[in-house]
């Protein structure tokens, strides 16, 4: 008996999208705070903008490749 597949995006894709969205929020916050005249931004905010965004993108791309290979 075959197990039906769950509809929707795989969990890895959802995690990647979430991390990418958080990273983009951090990038936006960095730009807004810098434009407001603040120069000493928190390190965690800069790290989130620089690390979380590409990590989310990479996870999304990995999930996309895995899904394409599974379907072919």
Model description:
The chain is mainly α. It has one domain. It is 75% helix and 0% strand. It has 2 helices and no strands. Helix 1 (11-35) packs antiparallel against helix 2 (43-71). The chain is elongated, with a radius of gyration of 17 Å. The two termini are 22 Å apart. The chain crosses the membrane at residues 12-37, 43-65. Keywords: Membrane, Transmembrane, Transmembrane helix.
Which properties best describe this structure?
72 residues; 0% strand; elongated
Mind sketching the topology for me?
Elements: H1 11-35, H2 43-71
Tell me the count of domains: 1
> What string, H for helix and E for strand, traces the elements in order?
HH
* Multimeric state: single chain
- Summing up helix and strand content along with how strands pair, one would put the structural category as mainly alpha
Query: What percentage of the residues does DSSP assign to strands (E)?
Result: under 5%
Helix-residue proportion: over 70%
Instruction: Give the low-pLDDT segments.
Output: none
Number of DSSP E strands: 0
What would the principal axes of the Cα set say about the shape? elongated
CA-atom Rg in angstroms: 17 Å
What is the typical, i.e. mean, pLDDT?
A: 89
Distance between the termini: 22 Å
Helix count equals 2
- Main sheet? none
